[in-house]
Amino acid sequence: MTLLCVPLVARTVEEMVADAAAAAAAGGDLVEIRLDFIQGFRPREHLPLLLRGCPLPALVTYRPSWEGGQYEGDDTTRFEALRLAMELGVDYVDIELKVADKFMSFISGNKPEKCKLIVSSHNYEYTPSCEDLANLVARIQAVGADIVKVATTAKDIVDVSRMFQVMVHCQVPMIGLVMSEKGLMSRVLAPKFGGYLTFGILNAAKTSASGQPTVEELLNIYHIRHIGPDTKVLGLIANPVKQSKSPILHNKCLQSVGYNAVYLPLLGDNLATFLKTYSSPDFSGFSCSLPFKVDAVTCCDEHDPVAKSIGAINTIIRRPDGKLVGYNTDYIGAISAIEDGIGGPGSKDAAISPLAGRLIVVVGAGGAGKAIAYGAKEKGARVVVANRTYEKAVSLASAIGGQALRLADLETFRPEEGMILANATSLGMYPNTDGTPISKKALSFYDMVFDAVYAPKVTRLLREAEDCGVKVVSGVEMFIRQAIGQFEHFTGGIEAPESLMREIAAKYT
After folding, report:
1. Shikimate dehydrogenase substrate binding N-terminal domain: which residues (predicted)?
2. What is the tens place of the pLDDT at every residue in 354-413?
């Protein structure tokens, strides 16, 4: 079982002892005591206090500045502290590969049997090739490591795949982690690829390396105790992705039905490269969000007819034969939410949809905009597309037989009463919550405003529309409804737990 290690980075011994107790209460398996973080550290005085007051097995690290740590002194003083930790019965000691031979000579091979020696290498610039990583692992093994530790940095999410390849072939226990937000997958999937341990922090203020999730996230969102070699990998490919609530929603729902999968936030740069790199059948399904919904069409081998007509995909399923099939659940999610907001519920029959005959202004010509414009047209609405890049508005409007507008034209556009506005851009999305596609004054032209943005739940657009007395529909409704469709695709037809989804959305959005 992959161990969950909590790094302790407090500045005082007293705070570190308190954090060790908090780590045990949170569900950690062991703690990493970072001696280099303690101000005025005195080994013979402080180490006994730290180890005596520790309720969990301990890993002691005294990281020098040249390897990304806080310690600025000489190696001999550092080695003496680590040797003392061994004598006091610590479970693990971490030493850097660069000085491992020197440390082994210093302790003259007198390492207590109970203590495991972790020999580590950190690359804060990039992730080397598979060949170079394998050679590095061999060098670490050769110096007498009980456990190999390699930490690199992800410039692109595909870099993590190289660490996974090396981990599964390593003949000794290995800790393989890739730092930065793009490397998060390496930390969550450590149990799937045989990692000896992974790190989870107590909170965002107590991090020891970039990209570390919290203990609470690892245990209660990603459910890492249940991740194993057969666990399917799902996720949201987007850029940015940090603000998404999809991992919380999908993981809790997957757990509720007992489906063996984990859903990850995947910060990507190129969708085609990502899908080509993570081509194993275990990487079985993905949500696509900005900016990849249109790119996804060319990445898929087959398309659901609706998705093909829209020209945008928000769900990709990898079949057992390796073929990628694209779907669009944004279409149903957004249109049904708008229909209900108008005073539906609507019907699959466009003739009796509350959208039939209405004029809807869709702001945005990307993936979400295409889904809403296509769906509204299918329901019998008259569609106007407004976009910052006018040529894209023209292209989408032509495809559905609608009208194109420049974004600036919305300030005076009022051909009739009773219009509906649907924002399908990221304007107003966290963290840029001040954004809005239209002035407050112009919002008074509309009877209803829908915003596809769901984080925050009440955007500036919706808040200002309500101030004008306009009916509003939050993107949370679209979020839930499109997620229901995705969940059923991901699980091969298991009915989505809608009531649980709504409960989660209410709590986290």
Report:
1. 236-316
2. 999 999 999 999 999 999 999 999 999 999 999 999 999 999 999 999 999 999 999 999
Tell me how far apart the alpha carbons of residues 72 and 457 are, in angstroms, rounded to a whole number. 47
Q: What would you report as the CA-atom Rg of the chain, rounded to the nearest whole angstrom?
A: 27
DSSP secondary structure of 35-87: GGGSTT--HHHHHHHHHHT-SS-EEEE--BGGGTSSB-S-HHHHHHHHHHHHH
- DSSP per-residue codes, 332-395: HHHHHHHHHHHT----SSGGGSTTTT-EEEEE--SHHHHHHHHHHHHTT-EEEEEESSHHHHHH
Instruction: Find all residues with CB under 8 Å of 370, minimum gap 6, and list them.
Output: 293, 294, 310, 311, 312, 396
Quick: pLDDT tens for 85-131.
999 999 999 999 999 999 999 999 788 999 999 999 999 999 999 99
Instruction: Report angle CA 239, 242, 245 to the nearest 5 degrees.
Output: 110
Point out the residues that are catalytic. Answer: 122, 149, 293, 330
**186 near 159, Cβ under 8 Å?**
no
Query: CB under 8 Å to 102, separation ≥6 — which residues?
Result: 75, 79
Residue pair 198/222 in contact (Cβ under 8 Å)? The answer is: no
The residue type of 344 is G
Which pLDDT score is estimated for 345?
Answer: 52
| Entry pTM | 0.91
CA 1 from chain center: how many Å?
23
CA distance 500 to 81: 51
CA distance 32 to 199: 9
Q: How far apart are CA 163 and CA 128, in angstroms?
A: 9
CA distances, 263 to each of 22, 331, 387, 490 (Å): 27, 22, 32, 10
Q: What's the pLDDT tens digit per position in 129-144?
A: 999 999 999 999 999 9
CA end-to-end span of the chain, whole Å? 34
| Helix and strand numbers, DSSP H then E, in the chain | 19, 20
Cβ pair 289, 267 in contact under 8 A: no
Question: Strands 92-96, 58-61: parallel, antiparallel or unpaired by DSSP?
Answer: parallel
pLDDT, residue 509, reads 80
Number of C-alpha atoms within 13 angstroms, CB side, residue 93?
27
Residue type, 12: T
Identity at 334, one-letter amino acid code: A
Amino acid identity at 33 = I
Who contacts 168 (Cβ-Cβ below 8 Å, separation ≥6)?
193, 194
